[in-house]
Amino acid sequence: MPKTSSLSWGEASIEALKGAGQLTADQVLKIIKDRDLRPITGKTPAATVAAQLYTAVKDGDPRLKQVGKGLFEHTGVETRGARRAKGKPLAPKANTGMSFLDAAERVLEIEGNRQPMTVRDITHLAIEKGLIATGGLTPAATLSAQIGTDTRRRLSRGENPRFTNPRRGYYGLSIWEGEGIAKAASQHRREIASDLKKRMRALTPDEFETLVGQVLVALGVEDAVVVGKTSDKGVDVRGTLVVSDVIRRKIVAQAKRWNSSNVGSPEVRNLRGSLGPHDLALLVTVGRFSPEAIEEAERSDATPVALLDGDGVVDIMLEHQIGVSSTTLEIFELSELDLNGDDIEE
To answer: 148: which residues sit within 8 A by CB, 6+ positions away?
Structure first.
């Protein structure tokens, strides 16, 4: 490993995440400082860390994954080009730096024999084999909570969960179930999401602004008005975000129907400049945001700007049935036949 003083921001950030669980950019920065992984430079080092982590995830770095909004985790893969070997015996060596979820998957692959195991047994084997190291008092509870969070997140994105929970306290792997209704439904959702994105890219700028207005209403914005070209500050939608009828904040949104390029930091700064006192801001695009835009949006010494890319818009459309409709499929299961004849008159 290179000297810590020579680590880039990206490598220092990934090194700080090893074995640390799920962390925000601020928490990663603290580890970088505490372990002296690199000099802390610049006015907004936390924003730099966040931008580096977002970029690594989008570039497909196998060492890193995003597990929530602004939340990252090391996968346990040691090098950028490495791939985790499957089907090999568990090696009883010291902590490999695996996440709890990767360690649980590894234990079930090798020790599960295609049968669910208790969360306590999974945790015990993961620690015994040196896949994870934890100082927590309740590692089994931690694993159970992480599996639940990961499952809900994957389902919300239309993805197959990594784990099954056939009964309380027991977990298995979804790949054991093979093809089935759940997998077919998940695949169908992904196809619908892809079609929605294609339709969204075909909208005119005015139509996309209207769609952004509908998305804001779905998110709880009242009195949403699409102002479009009538605005003198580049704002496309205005409204009031209401939380439980207690918190009311003015919100402005700008819609960027850009298909061929990422939305960059200048657009973030321009939207920020249009804000009034205490306004919230949302920048929406059909495509994606550049790493510089993400860093600028989260700059700690400026008003934050929320970013919503094309995938996020599609998720909201599916969740709130904007441009789609859902149907209920009736599923039948066999049950015991009652053939004792008590209810039949002879």
So the answer is: none
